[in-house]
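Notebook p. 47: complex prediction with iron/sulfur cluster.
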Amino acid sequence: MRSLRISVTDRCNLRCQYCMPEPEYVWLPRESLLSFEEIGQIAEAFIDEGVNRIRITGGEPLLRRDLPVLIESLAARTAVEDLALTTNGILLKGNAAALKRSGLHRITVSLDTLKRERFRALTGSSDWDAVIAGIHAAADTFGALKIDTVAIRGTNDDEIVELLEFGRTVNAEVRFIEYMDVGGATRWSPATVVPRAEILEVVGRHYGGVIPIGERASAPAERFLLPDGRTFGIIASTTAPFCATCDRARLTADGIWLLCLYASGGTDLRRPLRAGASRDELRQLIHTVWSLRADRGAEERLGMDRQTTLVPLRALKKDAHLEMHTRGG
Ligand code: SAM
Ligand code: SF4
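Predicted complex, structure tokens below:
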């Protein structure tokens, strides 16, 4: 275990069709959300067990008030070699400088289209310009960033080259994510997935070649080099899952630790923490659960008849933990 994704809220100011397309959701009760101090205590136990990379996510993490306070406390832990944030960018412009000051190392902004109208259809929001402004602010403040794009058939699969070209203008490495069937409310079907092979073909045809960088290790993104020296990434979680090298723990905003994005349940760390468990007791619990881990969620999905959705809408409405936006993506 090296990497920890911490979701700080399940709420979001967008309604991306592939993540939370419904107008209303059952949210995690506010009193169940971990305080920054509690997140810090749990993170310390994970760090004691080997975590050295932390990513803050959500829902939309910038909706969590005073987020730089949490970043500052995590950045102060010297064992954390990589501290990153994934955001939809809507609130980034006004926050980029404070995030940098608090010690955040890197930012990833999700951007699926360069067309305003498409953005509105895809996210339910007309704030595309705010996302672009957020990307520019991140580039100015951090020098570089990553852009994550979920490639969806018939939605944005004609923008692959344009998004790479846009990335060049803001010093961003663009990473294309294969659309995953993570919940019942999205309209996922096998036909909506733009596979890694097709993305490589489109990019290779346009730029005249693509060279694999071959440093995949445990990182989910495979990276590639273009003839002009620029790089881009593909996260092929649907057609080429990376379960065998997954070193990732996921913490929901209410302190449930998920061993896999596809897991139907997790380990409640909030309860022992609030009952007074020490850092070492938490660490031991984490050690035991992780040592028994046998999850291969994405590989299992690949092997089964996927005409049915992963989680039916009925079940989603009863348990917020089954939602992608609660799991942190
Ligand atoms: N709200 C933030 C954002 O959108 O960047 C952070 C949370 S979001 C759940 C994290 C990542 O999950 C985003 O890059 C998003 O595009 C990705 N994601 C959400 N649903 C997905 C799906 N069905 N397939 C692939 N990626 C998905
Ligand atoms: Fe919100 Fe991110 Fe999900 Fe879009 S992908 S609905 S921005 S949590």
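Notes: The chain has one domain: 3-327. The longest helix spans residues 128-142.
Next step: compare against the earlier run before touching the bench.
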